[in-house]
């Protein structure tokens, strides 16, 4: 169990590097081209590994349309995040993006009739309060933050759709298919104005971006093979812990104090919402047990 948590934390430590490479590339290239490059290179690396290790790539016939739909959601989410990275500080963009797990939880409640317990309610409230704080820190909307939150909503829809999919194939096959298919989805927009000029430095960034993306995915899969999902879920928020120093040392960015409060709200809300993954949790239990019991006792007395 501890090994699984350690592997996931390692993946979260590497994830901000992909955001850093994306932000650096976004200074010269469009978000669509950066997104295409990331997934095309990652897909080629994963495909080469499948050949080396003789691992077949299979997607169930009845889930192919679902795979296309989910890949489209993922490409939209990542394009929005990459666009946000080119405008706002890295930690702020990543923080807005991390609203995805709470969105996935709410979609599951609204569309799939899953139970809304106290954990999900409080988690959603804190996350959306945090999102509001970083969205309007000075009373005005900022396009980059809006795009980060849009990416988070799309990623949340992707997570909810993936959770409800009857069969998505194994994780390795899903990685290869989504990377290759996703890159072809955004290719028309990536090359809308022709093949862009790519410097040697940007070429190095592109290869590194795809390689680190593939490594992060493999580490995540390895973590899930060694620990339960309910145990690992809160550790996804270590992403923002590592994003802040990456943004500071690479791009000399540091979020404002108000933005820090917003990021803390999103992170805390997500961790609390993840506690509802325990199948034994009942509505208004756990963190809400004491105030709920007080309300019941007060109601009985009156």
**Percent helix among the residues?**
over 70%
Mean of all residue-level pLDDT scores: 79
Strand-pairing-aware structural class? mainly alpha
Number of helices: 13
Question: How many domains, in number, for the residues?
Answer: 1
Major pleated sheet: none
Q: Quote the distance from N terminus to C terminus.
A: 48 Å
Report the β-strand fraction as a percent range.
under 5%
Overall geometry = globular
Computed over alpha carbons, the radius of gyration is 20 Å
The SSE order reads HHHHHHHHHHHHH
How many strand elements?
0
Low-pLDDT segments, ≥5 res:
278-296, 298-302
Please outline what is shown here.
Helices cover about 75% and strands about 0% of the residues. It is mostly helical.
What would you say this structure looks like, in words?
This protein has one domain. The radius of gyration is 20 Å and the shape is globular. Helix 5 (100-112) crosses helix 7 (143-164). The protein is mainly α and 302 residues long. The protein has 13 helices and no strands.
């Amino acid at each position: 169990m501890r090994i699984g948590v350690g592997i996931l934390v390692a993946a979260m430590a590497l994830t901000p590097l992909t955001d850093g490479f994306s932000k650096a590339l976004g200074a010269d290239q469009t978000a669509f081209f950066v997104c295409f490059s990331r997934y095309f290179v990652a897909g080629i690396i994963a495909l080469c590994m499948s050949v080396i290790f003789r691992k077949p790539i299979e997607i169930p016939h009845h889930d192919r349309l679902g795979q296309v739909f989910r890949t489209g959601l993922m490409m939209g989410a990542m394009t929005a995040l990459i666009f946000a990275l080119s405008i706002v500080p890295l930690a702020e963009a990543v923080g807005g993006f991390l609203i995805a797990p709470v969105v996935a939880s709410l979609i599951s409640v609204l569309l799939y009739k899953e139970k809304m317990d106290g954990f999900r309610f409080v988690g959603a409230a804190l996350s959306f309060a945090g999102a509001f704080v970083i969205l309007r820190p000075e009373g005005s909307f900022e396009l980059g933050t809006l795009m980060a939150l849009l990416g988070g909503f799309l990623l949340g829809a992707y997570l909810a759709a993936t959770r409800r999919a009857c069969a998505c194939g194994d994780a390795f096959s899903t990685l290869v298919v989504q990377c290759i298919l996703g890159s072809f989805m955004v290719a028309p927009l990536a090359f809308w104005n022709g093949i862009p000029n790519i410097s040697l430095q940007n070429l190095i960034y592109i290869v590194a971006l795809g390689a680190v993306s593939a490594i992060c995915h493999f580490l995540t899969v390895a973590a899930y093979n060694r620990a339960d999902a309910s145990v690992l879920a809160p550790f996804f928020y270590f992403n923002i812990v590592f994003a802040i120093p990456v943004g500071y040392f690479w791009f000399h960015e540091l979020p404002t104090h108000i933005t820090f409060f917003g990021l803390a709200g999103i992170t805390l809300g997500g961790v609390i919402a993840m506690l509802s993954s325990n199948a034994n949790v009942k509505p208004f239990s756990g963190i809400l047990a004491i105030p709920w019991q007080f309300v019941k006792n007060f109601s009985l007395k009156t």
